[in-house]
Specification:
The radius of gyration is 28 Å and the shape is globular. It has four domains: 2-68, Elongation Factor Tu (Ef-tu), domain 3 (Beta Barrel); 114-186, RNA polymerase II/Efflux pump adaptor protein, barrel-sandwich hybrid domain (OB fold (Dihydrolipoamide Acetyltransferase, E2P)); 200-435, P-loop containing nucleotide triphosphate hydrolases (Rossmann fold); 452-578, Orthogonal Bundle (Bovine Mitochondrial F1-ATPase, ATP Synthase Beta Chain, Chain D, domain3). The model has no long low-confidence stretch (mean pLDDT 92). Strands 8, 18, 19, 20, 21, 22, 23, 24, 25 and 26 form a ten-stranded mixed beta sheet that branches. It has a six-stranded antiparallel barrel with strand order 1-2-5-4-3-6. Strand 20, helix 4 and strand 21 form a beta-alpha-beta unit. Helices cover 32% and strands 23% of the residues. By secondary structure, the chain is α+β, with helices and mostly antiparallel strands. The chain binds adenosine-5'-diphosphate and magnesium ion.
Length: 592
């Protein structure tokens, strides 16, 4: 620890001099209230410090203490269900103790010190263990088992370990290492700006099943992958993020919220805890950690929040879980970066964002991935990262969106045009993309149905054709379209309304399994193929369009998951309704 003095205060930024041996990213305590801050620039004898709390009242001459330690988070049981600010102060605990606004200088640890957890050993005295090995387990919540691991960098022989009720600071084991006996507690610390180690990172190949049809079928994200959701205000970013948090087949969710509207984060603080986990029927919070920034919180805490969030996500990944880290919205984070950079008087890049915006964004998204976890059991875990971006005016050419698109592999472009038309999720199917498609297609082929990739291609081709035909129809009128083209338009409409549109607030529609996504798309495409056949044989387009089965197709998305056999009946009815009984042999069976 060394002490210095403030020479200048500029908003969230404080410049100090006289620190003995300051290092970049050292955690410091500023002023008599010991406000938390972090060294972000060193120039000669001067250290620039971003302060995570309101700096009013600070002035030249006030003390600054360098802890010599980097900004770190506490890891251990009790993280799940917590609601933290950007530097892991428990907002719910603080609110109960001090009222609604974070009081400056409040030091409240991330993990409850008094709570006891029932620790069950998974190794015994005399066992050899390496970093990452699971020493024991704790039932953290009714839905997630917490695995207490040998900390990175430690290995040796278990000298002592026992079952019992322990607080996070009490010794649960003693390990004899080459450098002596080392106690292990359930509480471990990790610097937030440093990625946690693993044995090996793999290219993600398995889909993260979200139950959102446009996502899973057309623009899938892989477990361990990255995606971004750019969209203007009100286009549905938060609804989509919440739907994925609820339905995706990842066990743990870390949700980093940066409020957009003045009081939006208070909404999230109120709303998120109300969400129910559809898999367990319990509150979603039991497998979630919420990192919240309201717009009245200092910008520096917002800057730190994404690192805090991803470190917590990596920790559960290390236990062998599939984790999603969702940030809503990263634009608010980038703005914090811009503000601090401005105060440092750095050379501004595009639109005032610092030149390192892209590098920072990349470094954050690169902490995603599917890994073989540290430890000797070869368990796998993953962190998928999904970030919303709110480009001002929906302009995708702005720097944050552009820098994000350079690093993420999936782009779900939300548009207000679609949201106004109540087409939800308002994802533009023509310009969105997923670079995981090739890899996840194998999974669909093997696990769902071999013809799925072809169905998907055909559906996308119909949608693209529709866009061209709309252009023609706009210029010369719908009458100019041939019956075949009219059918394309009808089928595209069916794909959009009966498949892509999905109501996040309707119990029957909110989630669709991969199997049902396949059956639903097959139904729509079957109708299209049979109708195409009949058109060629001279049937009237109006008659085809008016077939009663089309109403059933429109309702098929509401067929419950346990009644999927009804899709077979519908497939049969398509033929019965639109294919007349002919004297000659019927055309080939279309895979129904
Ligand atoms: N999948 C959806 N199903 C039904 N309504 C939706 C859906 N997505 C968005 N909405 C509607 O759009 C509104 C705005 O969405 P929101 O996620 O708050 O936008 P953003 O976060 O982009 O500002 C929601 O309140 C809701 O009424
Ligand atoms: Mg929002």
């Amino acid at each position: 620890m060394s002490e210095g003095r403030i020479v200048k205060v500029s908003g969230p930024l404080v410049v100090a001099r006289g620190l003995a041996n300051p290092k970049m990213y050292d955690l410091v305590k500023v002023g008599e209230n010991l406000l938390m801050g972090e060294i972000i620039e060193l120039r000669g004898d001067f250290a620039s410090i971003q302060v995570y709390e309101e700096t009013s009242g600070l002035g030249p001459g006030d003390q600054v203490i360098d802890t010599g330690q980097p900004l770190s988070v506490e890891l251990g049981p009790g993280l799940l269900s917590s609601i933290y600010d950007g530097v892991q102060r428990p907002l719910d605990v603080i609110r109960d103790k001090y009222g609604n606004y974070v009081t400056r200088g409040v030091e409240e640890p991330g993990l409850d010190r008094a709570r006891r957890w029932h620790f069950v050993p998974k190794v015994k005295k005399g066992d050899r263990v390496v970093a990452g090995d699971i020493l024991g387990e704790v039932e953290e919540t009714t839905v997630i088992t917490h695995r207490v691991m040998v900390p990175p960098g430690m290995e040796g022989t278990v000298l002592q370990i026992q079952e019992g009720e322990f607080t996070v600071e009490e010794e649960v084991a003693v390990i004899s290492t080459s450098s002596g006996e080392r106690p292990v507690t359930m509480l471990q610390r990790w610097p937030v700006r440093k990625a946690r180690p693993y044995i090996e990172k793999w290219a993600p190949h398995q889909p993260l099943v979200t139950g959102q049809r446009i996502v899973d079928t057309f623009f899938p994200i892989a477990k361990g992958g990255t995606a971004c959701v750019p969209g203007p205000f009100g286009s549905g970013k938060t609804v989509l993020q919440h739907a994925i948090a609820k339905w995706a087949d990842s066990q743990v969710v870390v949700f980093v919220g940066c409020g957009e509207r003045g009081n939006e984060m208070t909404d999230v603080l109120l709303e998120f805890p109300e969400l129910t986990d559809p898999y367990s029927g319990e509150p979603l919070l039991k497998r979630t950690i919420l990192v919240a920034n309201t717009s009245n919180m200092p910008v520096a805490a917002r800057e730190a929040s994404v690192y805090t969030g991803i470190t917590l996500a990596e920790y559960y990944r290390d236990m062998g879980y599939n984790v999603t880290l969702q940030a809503d919205s990263t634009s608010r984070w980038a703005e914090a970066l811009r503000e601090i950079s401005g105060r440092l008087e750095e050379m501004p890049g595009e639109e005032g964002y610092p030149a390192y915006l892209g590098t920072r964004l990349a470094a954050f998204y690169e902490r995603s991935g599917k890994v073989i976890c540290l430890g000797s059991d070869n368990r796998e875990g993953s962190v998928s990262v999904i970030g919303s971006v709110s480009p001002p005016g929906g302009d995708l050419s702005e720097p944050v969106t552009q820098a994000t698109l350079r690093v993420v592999k999936v782009f779900w472009g939300l548009e207000d045009r679609l949201a106004f038309a109540r087409h939800f999720p308002a994802i533009n199917w023509l310009n969105s993309y997923s670079l995981y498609l090739d890899k996840t297609e194998d999974y669909w082929r093997d696990e769902v149905d071999p013809v799925f990739p072809d169905l998907r291609k055909e559906a996308m081709a119909i949608l693209q054709r529709e866009a061209e035909l709309l252009e023609i129809a706009r210029l010369v009128g719908v009458e100019a379209l041939s019956p075949q083209e009219r059918l394309i338009m009808e089928s595209a409409k069916s794909i959009r309304e009966d498949f892509l549109q999905q109501n996040a607030f309707d119990d029957a529609d909110a989630f669709t399994s991969l199997r049902k996504q396949f059956l639903l798309l097959r139904l729509i495409i079957s109708f299209h193929r049979w109708a195409q056949d009949e058109l060629e044989k001279g049937k009237d387009i109006q008659e085809l369009i008016a077939a009663p089965i089309r109403e059933d197709i429109a309702r098929a998305k509401f067929i419950p998951e346990d009644q999927l056999h009804r899709f077979d009946d519908l497939e049969k009815r398509i033929r019965e309704e639109i294919v007349p009984v002919r004297a000659e042999v019927p055309s080939e069976n279309r895979g129904t």
